[in-house]
Design goal:
Radius of gyration: 29 Å
Shape: globular
Structural class: mainly beta
Number of strands: 52
Distance between the termini: 15 Å
Mean pLDDT: 87
Low-confidence stretches: 1-53, 74-79
Helix content: under 10%
Length: 936
């Protein structure tokens, strides 16, 4: 059977692990580190490996005290997983979202989004490269961990900060397999859609020395992969007329003018709330991904009473993405659309025949790049001392960092066609509208692109946005914990401790929007690209299988240009006279630090806990309390808009005053009690109950009083506030009940119910038509707020059955019901999937191992009120199928083949699930991987 990295190493040494010294590794889960009577609930999913391991998992579950699902090294070596998130997706109630290439990136538990989840590594909080707290799992290859626990219940002894679930990743220990062990694994993969390849090398070496008292484990992962994601979207959003009968949409967002089918210049009742496309795009994101990871652990066990561990993890993800796309800016303006057809309040087709250069459709080339290079480190020291037979003390200190240096290196750059044309647009229900463009000189867009009939001279410079974040996240943590064995009556032992966490996170946005640089070469200041010396448009793409699953009429070949070449050509144009006076100067368009969206956030937290673990003949449990005190400080900057300059149709530049510093502070204290009970009716039938108060801190960026009015550039007058330090954490009172039936030694059927009453949930307010002090303009204002309440309840059903003939079955279903309230308004809770379910079948006998899994996530709301109350952006359902087969040639060598996304599913988004209102389309294709492992 195949294993990858550490997972396979642990599989090889499973038998020897039984002779390890008495003190447990801090990297193991609480259930593994304690006796069955003290263990937490394990819903451990075993899909291959020794039957004894399955029996052990069942025993741990029978004596559990809280709800926890786990995956072990055996499973991580079994599933066809690119990273940890893909492995976690097989656990009951877990769903994931994916980044370019289809790789898992963020994790949701029991339908609650990533902001309700906390990720730790060996109990230490992981720093992140994003603006928030949720960990981006694509930076972490699955090879570097030995297991993971998804803790859904709550105990006072656990780290606070999660309402959906606490995810603790565990690294391996050299004492898991005493003596010399090692593995080297090579993998190669290919994507059927893109016809691109990837490769990976992973290796682990472990040994123990000095009569088994000193252990060393080191690991390395080096991976390179070329990915392609076919995309379509609606960057400019949908335009919706004002609706005087809708209090949430009195002003509308038709910046070019109200959509007016009868051309009478009046907003008639039949036109209230009429919707039309503002902009749509289609293309591909190409990515050359490189991911390296290094792990090391030095562990000293001089006696059965003391252990010292020094460990470290370092990863680097080099993942630059370049999106080459065609963009069609169709935003309505009087006289721009004709022959409109309307279906259920949506303009589904129209012609664009106006000869005015600003009113005709000018197809665009869009180069959208994301320069993502992330370095993540985690280093720590852990010591455990059995002071006596009744007292154990543990200390831990660590430093966790993540940095991303992308300032000014991301791009959203547009070249605009300049030739007279007529066009027709039709919404057909496909993910991309039908679009035809015929030019006055006899060319048409689709044929001309396919035959190479367009050159630099057919385009003008246009929007030129350069941006990117420099993010630094640093977490320093320390803890001191103890366990006192009491063994008096029902009281088995008492756990106690104190933890300290100091987090500092900074974001420096570097872009050219604040200075007007994004519009420096657009509108009246556009340059014919042919005058830049030629060679700007460098590629013509006719990609294999491009958008082959989308049944619509649009160009399937598209041109592209390289940003660096384009920038050099613009710089070489310096000194040429600029309309309105002066000369072109590239430095005026270059990216600079943007204080309005930059911040510094500091957060210092102290927590103390005490937990009594109880044990009786037919039941066990625990009761405890955790007290958390947090101090937050935030620094940001603000600048008022002095005036707005109109550069042309839908093209404006805002002039800002000098920035002024804003500082905010906040402090809060939470008392978090918890209670867990496990009652044994019989040896086969068990009941678990739990109740607790939990909390999740606001996302870091919502603590910073930043704001942006960048949408002024294209004529959408909206001010978006990111937040303020006074935002309260989410808090929840949660209840769990689980009934488990062990109908065979290695099999279980369970049903669980849960309920979470969430307070101070964070959502977004929308305030249209506000006067923010800009003469002649009213703005829509958006800001994060603490809502009143939210309610989530659900049910989980699971089945795990292993048969003597080598076959096994795993099935799980989770159903959530949720709603939130802001004032008197009821809203759906964003990011919560109403149902998640999966089915897996396995076979293992002799040298052969087979598995197939299907994981389904139902559609859910991703953003509310995007076009007024009741118009929500929704993620559509998706089913992700994986399969794995491996064959053990001998004790040292095995081979494997794995498949991902075998149904070739795409992530899609729409407004209210309406196919006429698509919001996004991301297709990754099916991929296959071959692997070869050598153990020694």
């Amino acid at each position: 059977m195949a294993g990858v990295g550490i997972a396979a190493l642990l599989s090889a040494g499973a038998a020897q692990a039984q002779t390890a010294p008495a003190i447990p590794d801090p990297a193991t889960s609480a259930a593994e580190a304690q006796s069955p009577e003290e263990a937490q609930a394990l819903d451990e999913i075993i899909v291959m490996g020794v039957r004894g391991s399955v029996a052990r998992a069942v025993r741990l579950k029978r004596d559990a005290a809280t709800v926890q699902d786990s995956i072990s090294a055996l499973e991580l070596g079994m599933f066809p997983d690119d990273n940890v998130a893909d492995s976690l997706s097989h656990i009951t109630g877990v769903s994931i979202s994916r980044t370019a290439g289809g790789e898992g990136q963020s994790v949701s538990v029991r339908g609650l989004g990533p902001e309700y989840t906390l990720s730790t590594f060996n109990g230490r909080i992981l720093a992140t490269d994003g603006a928030g707290r949720d960990f981006a799992y694509d930076v972490l290859p699955s090879d570097v961990i030995s297991g993971a626990d998804v803790i859904k219940g709550a105990e006072a002894a656990n780290t606070e900060g999660a309402i959906g679930g606490l995810i603790n990743l565990r690294s391996a220990s050299p004492f898991d397999s005493p003596g010399q062990q090692g593995i080297i694994r090579l993998e190669g993969d290919r994507n059927r859609m893109s016809e691109l390849d990837g490769r990976k090398l992973s290796a682990v070496y472990s040994n123990t020395f000095l009569d088994g008292t000193l252990g060393l484990l080191v690991g390395i992962v080096a991976e390179e992969r070329d990915d392609r994601t076919d995309v379509a979207g609606n960057d400019g959003g949908w335009s919706r007329n004002a609706d005087p009968t809708d209090e949430s949409w009195l002003w509308g967002n038709t910046w070019g003018g109200a959509i007016d089918p009868n051309n009478n210049g009046v907003l008639d009742p039949a036109e209230y709330g009429l919707i039309g496309p503002g902009q749509f795009r289609v293309g591909s994101i190409l990515e050359e991904k490189k991911r390296n990871a290094y792990t090391a652990k030095l562990e000293w066990r001089p006696s059965d009473n003391f252990r010292l561990v020094v460990d470290g993890l370092s990863t680097k993800l080099d993942s630059p993405q370049v999106g080459y796309q065609q963009s069609f800016y169709t935003l309505y303006a009087p006289g721009r659309w004709s022959n409109m057809q309307i279906n259920d309040g949506i303009v589904t087709s129209f012609d664009m025949t106006n000869p005015d250069p600003e009113l005709r459709l000018n197809p665009e080339l869009l180069n959208q790049t994301t320069y993502r290079v992330v370095e993540t480190q985690l280093y720590g020291v852990n010591a455990e001392w059995n002071v006596s037979d009744t007292l154990t003390l543990t200390g831990d200190v660590y430093l966790s960092t993540s940095s991303r240096s992308s300032g000014g290196q991301d791009s959203y750059v547009v070249l605009r066609m300049n030739q007279p044309n007529t066009a027709s647009v039709e919404l057909s229900g496909a993910r991309v509208p039908n679009v035809t463009v015929n030019f006055a000189d006899g060319r048409d867009l689709a044929t001309g692109l396919a035959n190479g009939q367009f050159t630099d001279a057919d385009f003008n410079t246009h929007y030129f946005s350069l941006a990117g974040d420099n993010i630094d996240d640093e977490i320093t943590g320390a803890s001191f914990k103890g366990q006192w064995e009491v063994e008096r009556g029902w009281l088995a032992n008492v756990q106690f401790g104190v933890t300290y966490t100091d987090r500092t996170k900074s974001r420096d946005l570097v872009n050219n929007s604040l200075t007007g640089g994004a519009d420096y070469y657009s509108g009246n200041y556009a340059i014919n690209v042919g005058d830049l010396g030629g060679g700007v448009i460098s590629n013509s793409f006719n990609l294999p299988n491009f958008m082959s699953e989308v049944d619509a009429q649009f160009p399937r070949t598209f041109l592209a240009f390289d940003i660096a070449t384009y920038q050099a050509a613009l710089a070489a144009y310096d000194g040429t006279p600029r309309p309105g006076g002066g000369v072109y100067d590239y430095s005026a368009a270059a990216p600079t630090w943007n204080p309005l969206q930059s911040y510094r956030v500091g957060e210092e937290s102290w927590a103390g806990f005490v937990q009594a673990n109880l044990e009786a003949e037919r039941w066990s449990g625990n009761v405890g309390v955790r007290v958390v005190q947090t101090t937050t400080n935030a620094q940001a900057w603000d600048a008022k808009i002095l005036e707005i300059i109109e550069n042309g149709a839908f093209n404006y530049t805002a002039i800002y005053d000098d920035p002024t510093e804003i500082t905010q502070e906040n402090e809060y204290t939470y008392v978090l009690p918890s209670l867990n009970l496990n009652y044994r009716f019989t040896e086969e039938l068990r009941l678990r109950l739990g109740a607790a108060k939990t909390m999740a801190r606001p996302s870091v960026e919502t603590l910073a009083p930043t704001n942006t009015t960048e949408s002024v550039s294209w004529g959408e007058f909206t001010q978006i506030y990111s937040g303020n330090a006074a935002l309260k954490p989410y808090s929840a009172v949660q209840y769990d009940a689980s009934l488990e039936y062990y109908f065979r030694p290695d099999s279980i059927f369970n049903i669980a119910v849960f309920k979470k009453d969430i307070e101070d949930q964070i959502t977004t307010s929308w305030e249209p038509g506000q006067d923010i002090g800009v003469p002649g303009y009213l703005f829509n204002v958006s800001r994060p707020i603490n809502g009143d309440t939210a309610e989530v309840h659900g049910v989980e059903v699971g089945l795990q059955h292993f048969m003597d003939n080598g076959f096994g079955l795993r099935a799980q279903y989770t159903r959530n019901w949720s709603k939130s309230f802001v004032g008197d308004e009821e809203r759906p809770l964003e990011g919560i999937a109403p149902s998640v379910y999966s089915l897996g079948a396995f076979y293992e006998r002799g040298p052969l191992s087979l598995s197939v899994s299907a994981d389904h996530t139902d559609g859910f709301t991703t953003a509310i009120n995007v076009l007024g109350e009741g118009y929500n952006e929704e993620s559509d359902p998706i089913t992700w199928v994986t399969a794995h087969a491996s064959y053990k040639i001998n004790d040292n060598i095995d081979i494997s083949i794995e498949g991902q996304n075998l149904l070739d599913e795409a992530n899609t988004y729409s407004i209210n699930g309406n196919p006429l209102l698509p919001q996004g389309y991301y297709r990754y294709g099916a991929s296959y991987k071959l692997g070869l492992s050598y153990r020694f």
